[in-house]
Predict the 3D structure of the following.
Amino acid sequence: MIKLTNLTKQYGSFTAVDGLSLDIPKGELFGFLGPNGAGKTTTLRMIAGILKPTSGSVELAGEDISNNPLVAKSRLGYIPDRPFVYDKLTGVEFLRFAAALYGQEGPHIEHRMGEFLELFELTRWKDELTESYSHGMRQKLIISSALIHKPEVIVVDEPMVGLDPKSGRVLKDLLRRFVDFGGTVLMSTHTLEIAEGMCDRIGIIRGGHLVACGTMSELREQTESGDASLEQLFLKLTGGVTEREFSDLFAA
């Protein structure tokens, strides 16, 4: 459902993503991890069609996003790391606008909007301008707008930022239900406990390269790490801070 082939993004002499190949099948929740500057968000923006790759290709549900962008994007729900909404629209107007971008309107969309507003406890604010929304409310509205058109693929960058624990639980259950019904999710997060608990497989990127990919068991085998936690695996693969480095910070 998501297929990346030799995906590369260069900015002048700097290579942010370097020949990344990845195949995420239907019905899988895939975790995409890496330190700051590793190329995660750049990759997600290329998948979403926001950035144009220097080379390589992106396929969404069998459609190449460069050759057939409108069809490919119609199958995608994208949740960015920073929720952007139009301040002079109300919550319900924003969802109606998002649905219209995909050519969807009418009673079934109105019903679906109501379901999402109720699910994320936004119903009482649906007719308020989004300029009055908190960060968490905006995040919930963006999540709803990404799902309103019933996509086949969801790409989400740091989904839990700004969400209260209850809303975070709702989103986890929503993504898992989406996958159980045959959808595909690619999720980038710095919260390793969430990735370990939610994801079917995990890929770790460093310096624009995929350095490990697989289930937790497969990652442990690849790194010869016994029963290590995801945090331990992540630090081993990306380079953690040593005890001496900490000591040097506080030495007399």
